[in-house]
Amino acid sequence: MGWEQIEISLPNCSSLQVISFPVVQLHLNRTAMRASQKDFENAMNQVKLLKKDPGNEAKLKLYALYKQATEGPCNMPKPGVFDLINKAKWDAWNALGSLPKETARQNYVDLVSSLSSSLESSSQVEPGTDRKSTGYETLMVTSEDGITKIMLNRPTKKNALNVEMYHEIMHALKAASKDDSAITVLTGNGDYYSSGNDLTNFTDIPPGGVEEKAKNGAILLREFVGCFIDFPKPLIAMVNGPAVGISVTLLGLFDAVYASDRATFHTPFSHLGQSPEGCSSYTFPKIMSPAKAIEMLVFGKKLTAGEACAQGLVTEVFPDSTFQKEVWTRLKAFAKLPPNAMRISKEIIRNREKEKLHAVNAEECSVLQGRWLSDECMNAVVNFLSRKSKL
Ligand SMILES: CCCCC/C=C/C(=O)SCCNC(=O)CCNC(=O)[C@H](O)C(C)(C)COP(=O)(O)OP(=O)(O)OC[C@H]1O[C@@H](n2cnc3c(N)ncnc32)[C@H](O)[C@@H]1OP(=O)(O)O
Predict the structure, then answer these.
(1) Among residues 201, 136, 226, which one has the least CA distance to residue 2?
(2) What's the CATH class of domain 37-118?
(3) Ligand 1 pocket member 151 (CB < 6 A)
């Protein structure tokens, strides 16, 4: 995804002919119809309720029409060539030329209506199936031998967490907290545990712009991390390979962390112009000392599995060749222990910290919301997406 997606969507949105043709046609067909301000507001609310992502191209059109409808023709200075996201948005808006505000408003309403019906009908392909409860797009969730296993399942993207995956993990954790399993395990499919936040999450800009994007991201992150803080049963991470970013910071909220000796632990927040999340600003200094936490969270020092174990972040390291067999044997034995006793013991160990953890989570999300709007963060994301940088 990433660069290819941006390259494909840019020509469509920056070309005057392509984008203005349907707009003009709609204008001619609708001289008698005018969307009211109420229709426009309803359409804006409807966009937030779309069950599926309409894709970057549609979102750029929505953005452009929204700006044209509310502010009129684009009179902003053109963003620099490396400011990919804002340039794509500027191009889309500018391509609408002098389209009247009322027509833009009508076209916005029409576009939302067509997106709602096409995304609605594509989600009805399998009638009667509730994807969220019977299957997942980004996870493999199984439950047997008293263990619910949540496996991150985007191996070709190194199990990067896209927005859908955040939602699905929350859903799977909530379901696991109520099912009849005794323990829950999080692991990754393929060679990575997880490469952390999917950096293409930053390219989906809603009509309200980057500020709205940052605000929504902070709300999502807070809810996501909250699910780990509140998870009532023993929660175990099986770190099958390298772990990056949020997949590392969350480990401080797990009850045991078993790692393959192939695993590494990397939190390159400063490199990305970002700041720590997952309550790591609180859990890491407690687990490994403030200085060691700063080496990881501020200077981005990558730890081997052995180092992470020596510092208390990892419970035990296993040779990769026997990792799966040894850990599953151990987990199956744990899962035979009386589940209520385990749950109550976890509660008494963790509960007095819960309030503090929720407060830390809220503060970290608020700081990150600001970081996501910084040049440092935007440049790092653009550099990754344009293949100029990797960790
Ligand atoms: C809303 C909540 C936000 C919470 C805040 C969270 C913060 C974080 O988690 S910060 C950490 C973010 N992660 C990264 O910066 C990692 C970026 N990825 C990389 O540097 C590298 O991909 C790698 C070192 C993880 C792996 O390198 P390599 O073995 O060379 O593999 P590829 O780069 O070719 O990766 C294969 C494929 O996967 C895509 N991909 C991998 N990680 C991510 C990612 N985090 N975001 C988006 N895409 C990712 C990569 O682009 C490749 O895609 P294709 O080229 O389409 O095959």
Answers:
(1) 201
(2) mainly alpha
(3) no
Residues 6+ apart with CB under 8 A from 374: 273
Q: Which of 234, 266, 228, 248 is nearest to 333 (CA)?
A: 234
The answer to whether residues 228 and 169 touch, using CB atoms and an 8 Å cutoff, is no
Beta-carbon contacts of residue 338 (< 8 Å; ≥ 6 apart): none
Residues 69, 223: Cα–Cα separation, whole Å: 33
Q: How far apart are CA 323 and CA 266, in angstroms?
A: 20
Closest CA to 249 of 235, 272, 227, 268: 268
Q: Is 158 in the pocket of ligand 1 (CB under 6 A)?
A: yes
Pocket of ligand 1 contains residue 202 by CB under 6 Å: no
Q: Residue 269 CA: which ligand 1 atom is closest?
A: 10
Q: What is the Cβ-side half-sphere exposure of residue 135, based on CA atoms within 13 angstroms?
A: 5
- Of 176, 188, 177, 189, the closest CA to residue 148 belongs to 176
Task: Work out the average pLDDT over 264-269.
Answer: 98
Among the atoms of ligand 1, which is closest to the Cα of residue 1? 56
- pLDDT tens digits for range 181-230: 999 999 999 999 999 999 999 888 898 899 999 999 999 999 999 999 99
Report pLDDT digits (tens) over 80-100.
765 677 777 888 898 898 888
Q: Residues 316, 299: contact at Cβ < 8 Å?
A: no
For 303, the token pair is: 């730890």
The β-bridge partners of 316 are 258
CATH, domain 139-389, list 3.30.70.250, 3.40.190.10, 3.90.226.10, 3.30.2010.10: 3.90.226.10
d(CA 33, CA 107): 11
